[in-house]
Specification:
heterodimer, A: two-stranded antiparallel sheet, 13 helices, 70% helix, 1% strand, B: 278 residues, mainly alpha, two-stranded antiparallel ribbon, 71% helix
Chain lengths: 306, 278
């Protein structure tokens, strides 16, 4: 009973102090959900795009024209980060388009390892010691961006582009035979997903005081993957909620000084989810599809069960 | 050495078309158990440690297959792959929990010294020589097993067409378990050899595991001779990179090779063309 009380007493301040991180992870998990869930391309190196975004944004805010002042610098760094990560996504999309399933996964993993290796050797941005970054983004800015991402994602998923992409996921051969351009669609998804991860990277860089290559290693990709699988591949709200919960999980573990077991918990959770409920907590449903809410609020309408 | 690990990958992939992410972790587990036995019990001969490592990582692999992969065999590939990644990270952290996070040294079981070819400027250490000899012995045994025994024939049949093999009265579940066992015990053997050259720690499986996977792809995944050639090539390339560039770039270069191979010749050097059934 005491432990439960401790959790509740500590939860409020913990949530407040990690609001920035939660926001960043929500955007990240959504961007991975776009590639993994919406398009059905299995990427396990997503932290690589995040790293590209964070480092290119940091390059602007640390070495860039400081005279411009905070807000403008932040905007520039976000744009630069999104473009950089988008370009990285485009470059990676070229070899990936010919591949499916596990090969694709391995290539994305390789990509993230290459990125981290390069960062470890990148003297300009502090190499292995990392780089200190100015704090430019407030909680408000980050959550505004989260909201924006959610809206854009929602609009995209139920747009005709989103539906064609989902058709491609369901049956590639059938979709191609009705004239969908597989290469074009997959590239688009990859670039959008990567650019979104770049946005998360920019927000991360300007809400943390310090960046180092160790922060973008494979365990972060696993964390993101757990969020997407837990939330339900393809579900927007499911993944967003899972991202919030799983970002808080290490903080809760820290209360009991169990943080050494963090990755054990994440990987165990991933395995259990895949074995027992591979469709995730939400499946492809959204929060407003839950029976309780559905009677009062149905923004997606009957169509939302895509 | 990569060739031996790559063989395990290729066998598992050949039979159920799954990239077994946890393969490097089987290597790590075998290495730990072998090292512990030799360290704790004074005077244990190397060969006993090696045997224990092979048996234990084989058993871990069979359990993994039964618990994590078998229930998902009918599911989309994505889920099996996710399970494999999860198992890999899980095993790393379990090992960290049991054995501690710090590296332990392997006892020196080999005679020190080396054979010198002064004229050529090459020297081969005894330990390296023993590794090569052991690898060759294991490979020959594997070749014999796959090509000449009944179980080997059943394995090849299952790899060809799992449904048809089942209809022909082959117990495919058993064959898959055996494949996992053999692949992982090879990895366990490599774990001991690898541990002797460097040291033993919970993350030691990651780098050789990935490099061996790239080797398997390079040689054409599913092909045993291909895996050997790929393993040798990757080993040579990594040593060249470490020698002339910097060892920090090793894994980056390995993956660059992977991406290039996959975009230029996805079937690898000795791979067969795969046909997508509609």
């Amino acid at each position: 009973m005491d432990t439960v009380l401790t959790i509740f007493r500590e939860l409020g301040p913990t949530i407040y102090s990690s609001l920035e991180l939660i926001g960043v992870y929500v955007i990240l998990a959504l961007s991975l959900n776009m590639i993994n869930g919406m398009a059905g391309m299995f990427s396990i190196g997503h932290a690589g795009f995040w790293a590209v975004g964070a480092y290119s944004a940091a390059a602007v805010t640390v070495h860039g024209p400081v005279a411009l002042g905070g807000p403008l610098l932040l905007v520039i760094s976000i744009v630069v980060a999104m473009v950089a990560a988008g370009v990285a996504g485009f470059i990676l999309a070229v070899p990936c388009l010919r591949l499916t399933g596990d090969y694709l996964a391995i290539v994305t993993l390789g990509f993230s390892i290459i990125i981290v290796t390069l960062l470890y050797n990148f003297e300009y941005m502090g190499a292995a010691t990392g780089v200190s970054t100015p704090i430019l983004a407030s909680k408000g800015v980050i959550w505004f961006m989260v909201l924006l991402t959610l809206i854009v994602y929602y609009r995209l998923q139920f747009s005709s582009l989103g539906r064609t992409i989902q058709a491609l996921r369901e049956d590639e051969i059938a979709a191609q035979s009705v004239g969908l351009n597989r290469v074009r669609l997959k590239t688009i998804v990859f670039v959008i997903g990567a650019a979104m991860a770049g946005l998360a990277g920019a927000l991360y860089a300007s809400s943390q005081t310090y960046l180092s290559p160790a922060g973008f290693e494979f365990d972060k990709s696993i964390k993101l993957l757990t969020m997407v699988v837990l939330g339900g591949l393809g579900s927007i709200t499911g993944v967003a909620v899972a991202a919030v919960l799983l970002t808080l999980l290490p903080e809760v573990l820290r209360l009991f000084s169990l943080d050494a077991y963090q990755m054990l918990v994440f990987s165990g959770m991933l395995l259990v989810m895949v074995l027992l409920r591979p469709q995730g907590l939400m499946g492809r449903y959204e929060i407003w599809d839950l029976p309780l809410l559905r009677r009062y609020w149905r923004p997606g309408g009957a169509e939302s069960k895509s | 050495m990569y060739a031996l690990i790559a063989l395990g990958y290729t066998m598992v992939y050949g039979i159920i078309a799954l990239i077994n992410f946890a393969h490097g972790e089987f290597l790590m587990m075998g290495s730990f158990l072998g090292a512990l036995l030799i360290n704790r019990v004074q005077g244990t001969p190397l060969i006993v440690g090696l045997a224990l490592a092979m048996v234990s990582s084989g058993l871990i692999a069979v359990v993994t297959e039964r618990v994590a992969y078998k229930p998902l065999r009918e599911q989309p590939k994505i889920f099996v792959l996710t399970a494999a990644i999860a198992v890999s990270v899980l095993l790393q952290n379990v090992a960290r929990l049991i054995f501690g996070a710090s590296a332990i040294a392997f006892p020196a079981a080999f005679p020190e010294g080396s054979i010198n070819f002064d004229g050529l400027g090459i020297w081969i250490e005894y330990s390296q020589l023993i590794i090569v000899v052991l690898s060759v012995v294991l490979m020959v045994q594997l070749w014999y097993f796959v090509n000449k025994t009944k179980i080997g024939m059943a394995m090849r049949a299952t790899a060809q067409d799992i449904e048809a093999a089942r209809l022909m009265g082959i117990n495919t579940d058993r064959i898959i378990s055996i494949t996992f066992y053999i692949g992982a015990s090879l990895a366990g053997a490599v774990g001991v050899l690898y541990g002797m050259q460097y040291s033993v720690d919970p993350l030691m499986g990651v780098q050789p595991g990935l490099a061996a996977f790239v080797a398997a792809v390079l040689g054409g995944i599913g092909s045993l001779p291909g895996a050997m050639i790929g393993g040798v090539l990757i080993g040579v390339i990594e040593n060249l990179v470490a020698g002339y560039l910097s060892s920090t770039y090793q894994s980056a270069i390995t993956f660059l090779i992977l991406i290039l191979v996959l975009s230029i010749k996805p079937t690898g050097l000795l791979g067969r063309k795969t046909v997508v059934k509609v």
